[in-house]
Every structure is written in structure tokens, then in C-alpha cells.
């Protein structure tokens, strides 16, 4: 009875947002539809939402508010990863929608003091970091190797509010896990990345990865997203955005196949070559060909001498000299871009860390049976790579 009353209270709060609606993000505004379409997903962490709201309302200073936010954000990440790891569930949606429920509280409900616009932005950033695993990146196990893996939020939610993302599930399932191959061990730490162009333009990937590349203190950085029919290892990420699909704030890239655009980095065009080359241990990962094929994907679209977009499958990076990137082997969306940005940064900092992108098989909505197969194969692929990183 208590749980039912608690959920009814939270559902009412989610559905009665008209007073603050203009202040909410596009993602947060989808909460009303999500609460109607899949209430069982949102109520998974109902206690986290309710406990955070009570604590937030009592915050009497910025320092107190930040402490509350960090504690509750980190607890949400731990609860989400623990739930996925300790049960047979393969579901990233409760974390995504609970994060939005809590960020909505920060944005729309005043605490016991009046935070400035700058303070509110800082608090939201702290909440994002904590609830995405960025404050939990400590390698504590006595292993031979260290791996950092990133996944993504669900996306294209206006097409299907029930969408899940296998890469996010993989991040939750593998966080803090130790994998072994022929006596070699590796600890995995993970982060989930937002599907938002603005975050990329503000340097979220560079801020996250620069310390690792500067210090060479992990052995492999693997970015993962949902992609096509099989697994694709994306050999030649491209620099530019060219898709017309929106991000999770319904922002468009501004690019197209005919006129691809260069992303930004801290208010300046992103520097770097048009294409870069990944350094994943391809041959070892391709030993794992079940239940899905693992493809070494060379396919890119570029504008060369013909001044028209042409799709090719080059063998070497030098074959793309003088070409303008339209789509890298990872496409023209943020999954390709995270790969490009990570490799460009690695090269800029002269790092030796093996780096590259894995596209998982695509799902159309939440599909736990398929996602379980995908995550298990990712784990096996990572284990098979240990002898060469």
C-alpha cells in the first residue's frame, strides 16, 4: 500500500508540470508521455525520486544543494548498475527516465534558497556527472589491464517512447566488472553519454577522456552505440555531421549529405583531419562471430574530385587524402562523432591507448532477450582483445 501511494504521488508530480513547463528541457517534457505509456519503468526507482525531492527542498545553500545532488546522483548510478548486474534484467530505461525525473525537480522546484542561473547550471552538471557514472571512475581491482567503455542514452524517443539502447545496457552491466582471457585480467569502468549535440560542442568527450590520454593510464577506450544489423568495428570515423535525425533535444545537426558540417569545440570549429583511423584489436575481436557477425567496417562517404558525395571502402587512411568527410564508417551522427573526437584527442596527446568504436546490432524498442545476447558478445569481444592491448 505504501509503495502504491508513493508511486501515485510521483506520477501526479510528473503529470502536473504546467507551471514550470517553459523551464523544462525537451527530454524532461517527455516524462508525461512516458508516465502514461510505461509507468512500470519510471517507478523502478520511485524511492530515489521521492528521497531526492525531499532532500532538495530542504537545501539552504549552494554547497548543501551540491552535496545533496552529488550524493543522490551517485546513488542513482550505483542503484541502476547494481540492479542490472544482480538480476536478469537488461534495461537501461529506468536510469534514463529517473535521471530526467530528478533533473526536472532541480529545474522546476525551488529549494530553500534561490540559486543563481550559473549555480543552477553547475548543479545540473554535477547531477549529470554523478548519474552517468563519471564520478565512479576508479580502478580498484588488482588486474593486468584497464578498460574504459562508454554507452549512450536511448534516442529517437519521439518515434518510440519505449526505446532502449544496448550500449547503455552494456555500460550498466559491465561497470566495475573484471573480465579474464587466458590468465589476463581487466577491470572495466563505464560512462553513459547523452545524445545531445550541445554537450558534444561544449567538449563533454574531450573533458572526459583527456586525462586518460594524457597519462596513458588505461589500456583501451571503447565507445559503443546502437547501429546496424550486425556488430561493426568502425575503422575510419569522419569529422563532420551529415544526418538529418534530431538529437534528444530535437536539435538537428545542421548538416546533410550534400553539405556536411564541422562540429564545434568550445565555440570554435573542431580541429583535425577529415578522417581518422581507429586502433582496436580487430583480428582478435573478430574471432567472436556468434551470435552476430563482427564486421571490420571500412565504408565511408566523402566528397572528392567529383565534388559529389561518393561511398567507398578504402583500405588505408591515405586513400582519403584531400577528401571532405560526409559520413565516417560510423555514420554522420553522434556515434561516429564520439569515435572521431576520441581518436583525434588520442593523436593530439600522443597516446598509446587502443581506441575505437563498436556499433551494436539495432533494436526497435526494449528487447531484453536480444540485448542480453548483445551485451554478452561485447564482453566476449573485450576479453578476446586482452592479449594485444
Characterization of the model:
The chain is α/β, with parallel strands linked by helices. It contains 14 helices and twelve strands. It has helices at about 1-15, 25-30, 30-35, 40, 45-55, 60-85, 95-110, 115-130, 165-175, 195-200, 205-215, 280-285, 335-350, 370-385, and strands at about 145-150, 180, 185-195, 220-225, 230-235, 265, 270, 295, 300-305, 310, 325, 355-360. The strands form three sheets. Strands 2-3-1-4-12-5-8 form a seven-stranded mixed sheet, with helices on both faces.
Task: Quote the CATH topology of the largest domain.
Answer: Aminopeptidase
User: CATH first level of the largest domain: which class?
Assistant: Alpha Beta
Whole-number average pLDDT? Answer: 94
Structural class: alpha/beta
| Rg measurement, Å | 21 Å
Which blocks of ≥5 consecutive residues have pLDDT under 50?
12-22
User: Based on the structure given, which CATH architecture of the largest domain is correct?
Assistant: 3-Layer(aba) Sandwich
> Which overall shape is indicated by the principal axes computed on the Cα atoms?
globular
Let me know the CATH homologous superfamily of the largest domain.
Peptidase C15, pyroglutamyl peptidase I-like
State the end-to-end distance: 53 Å
How many β-strand stretches? 12
Helix proportion of residues, in percent? 40-55%
Count of structural domains:
2
Count of runs of 4 or more consecutive helical residues: 14
Tell me what portion of residues adopts beta-strand conformation: 15-25%
Largest sheet: 7 strands, mixed
SSE series: HHHHHHHHEHEEHHEEEEHEEEEHEH
> Which strand order do you get reading across the main beta sheet?
2-3-1-4-12-5-8
